[in-house]
UniProtKB/TrEMBL annotation:
Entry-linked InterPro entries: YbaK/aa-tRNA-synt-asso_dom_sf (IPR036754), YbaK/aa-tRNA-synth-assoc-dom (IPR007214)
MF-aspect GO terms: aminoacyl-tRNA deacylase activity
The YbaK/aminoacyl-tRNA synthetase-associated domain, residue ranges: 25-100
PANTHER family cross-referenced by the UniProt entry: CYTOPLASMIC PROTEIN
Domain of life: Bacteria
SUPFAM superfamilies xref list: YbaK/ProRS associated domain
Protein name: Cys-tRNA(Pro)/cys-tRNA(Cys) deacylase
Naturally occurring in which organism (per UniProt): Salmonella enterica subsp. enterica serovar Poona
């Protein structure tokens, strides 16, 4: 989804939402929080995991940590973080980019 298509979607469905483009990096939770002048817990991060042959995206607060026991219990198998290359191959988005959950 391109920036223009997101702008059009929001204009049509949620005109009160504003898109802010930043000049500084938001590649990490810390950088994103600094760029937006908020605390890390106010930033949403997307974690890309693989459980068996299934890729799972977990959206969490920026300062949250995964509980591996709960994660493994929920999905019935061990989960592992995707590598940088696997993330790009799976969803076309590099690590540190804005989540493409709107796709």
């Amino acid at each position: 989804m391109s920036l223009q298509s997101v702008r059009q979607f929001l204009a049509d469905h949620a005109p009160d939402i504003e898109i802010n483009e930043l000049n500084q990096s938001t590649a990490t939770v810390e950088l994103a929080a600094k760029a937006h002048n908020v605390e890390p817990g106010q930033i949403a991060k997307t974690l890309s995991l693989k459980v068996k042959d299934t890729i799972i995206l977990v959206v969490a607060k920026g300062d949250a940590r995964l509980d591996n026991k709960k994660l493994n219990s929920t999905f019935g198998a061990n989960a592992r973080m995707l590598s940088s290359e696997e993330v790009v191959n799976a969803n076309g988005q590099p690590l540190g980019g804005v989540s493409r959950l709107s796709r």
